[in-house]
């Protein structure tokens, strides 16, 4: 692992876009890859989701092989699993990947991953995977530990379900809370609990309030939130840093620059996630 120390807790963004990859000259600064976030905590590497951003993480890791990583999935919509077949460390013998998630329909995580995440439409043959894959079935709402790291989970308000994560270590905490829709009349207690006094809250703010309530094409019920609601949650939960995440694929760099100004004005310590951005938790 690169330049890790016994006291390191670092969050790095590898894919920050929602729904579908959006490459092009208008998305270069923030990035067009879908959801993937890495947390490096002392000697452990945690990976959240497997959107197309995980391809670049895999390339970054190649000089450091062999690796051991702990991989967590929020849910299995395409934008969170499309990069899995292109995560190169999975195809190299000697690597160990601990894969965690709550599989739907009562199947095991191992069966779900091999039959549905690595489905028949995958362009890469499953038989080529050489890494040691270890599977863990999570129950949403439970808490688990990795050594002295504590990982709490909670259900999110999203079509077909999703799971939020709170990772805590040595008094510091990072919350990964994407693909969740706020409620019209109250703050989501599940999100508030995960985010309580967190050092960073990574929050699905795909829309602006104006877009969410647009009478011509409302996004109510689509399973995503707004940056304005993210600010409300961050303030209510006492969050130190709010990371606006899961950017709408039609939002250009210039659009996101404008949103960033509004977000930072509304909430001190807030920012828009960008590919490659590294946030150390001190």
Report the C-alpha radius of gyration, rounded. 18 Å
Q: Care to count the β-strands?
A: 14
What's the number of helices? 6
Largest sheet: 7 strands, mixed
Uncertain parts: none
Estimate the mean pLDDT confidence: 95
Task: Tell me the series of helices and strands, N- to C-terminal.
Answer: EEEHEEHEEEEEHEHHEHEE
Shape estimate:
globular
- The helix/strand class is alpha/beta
| N-to-C span | 19 Å
Strand order of the largest sheet: 6-5-4-3-2-1-14
Describe the structure.
The chain is of the alpha/beta class. The chain contains six helices and 14 strands. The protein has a seven-stranded mixed β-sheet. The protein has helices at residues 53-61, 109-117, 189-195, 209-212, 227-237, 253-266; strands at 9-15, 36-41, 44-48, 68-72, 96-101, 132-137, 143-146, 149-156, 162-169, 172-177, 200-204, 241-245, 270-272, 278-280.
Question: Would you kindly provide a brief summary of this structure?
Answer:
By secondary structure, this protein is of the alpha/beta class. Helix content is 19%, strand content 27%. Strand 2 (36-41) and strand 3 form a beta hairpin.
Please name the defining characteristics of this protein.
single chain; alpha/beta; 282 residues
